[in-house]
Amino acid sequence: MPNLVTEIAPAPSEIAADHFAKRLSLETDCWDVHETLKSGTPEFILLDVRGPAAFARGHVPGALNLPHGKITGRRMADWPDGTLFVVYCAGPHCNGADRAALKLARIGRPVKLMIGGVTGWIDEGFALVCDN
């Protein structure tokens, strides 16, 4: 008798592999960002897309503050074409990072979303920095 897990059969392996590869091309997580920032050569720009007050209260070390509503092609011209942007917001309850990622993608910029945002960062045990 099927249960809630098995009542829908799992996808074939090749479909699952394609699905998860696509997800990883769009997302990264707090642990991977933290470890990469520690290396000193991140090869991406980390954008905190919340408002300036939230950013000042605490943000991921090394992040730049650029609220999603201020992302424009003109603003992003400060970085070379092909620059990868990793965006985050407050956490799973916030869609600011999705909005930022959409804007960046629409202007032709490579982008990944740091899943979990500030909430995920703290959940991993990583410290935020404050601008006080």
Give an overview in words.
With 132 residues, the chain is of the alpha/beta class. Helices cover 39% and strands 14% of the residues. It has a 5-stranded parallel sheet with strand order 1-5-4-2-3.
In short:
The chain has 132 residues and is of the alpha/beta class.
Number of strands: 5
Order of helices and strands: HEHEHEHEHEH
Measured by DSSP, the beta-strand proportion falls in: 5-15%
Bulk shape: globular
Secondary-structure content class? alpha/beta
Mean pLDDT: 96
Taking strands numbered 1, 2, ... along the chain, how are they ordered across the largest sheet? 1-5-4-2-3
Given as residue ranges, the uncertain stretches (5+ residues, pLDDT < 50) are: none
Give the arrangement of secondary structure elements.
Elements: H1 13-26, E1 27-29, H2 30-39, E2 45-48, H3 52-57, E3 64-65, H4 73-76, E4 85-88, H5 96-106, E5 111-115, H6 117-123
Parallel strand pairs: 1-5, 2-3, 2-4, 4-5
Structure characteristics:
alpha/beta; globular; single chain; 132 residues; 6 helices; five-stranded parallel sheet
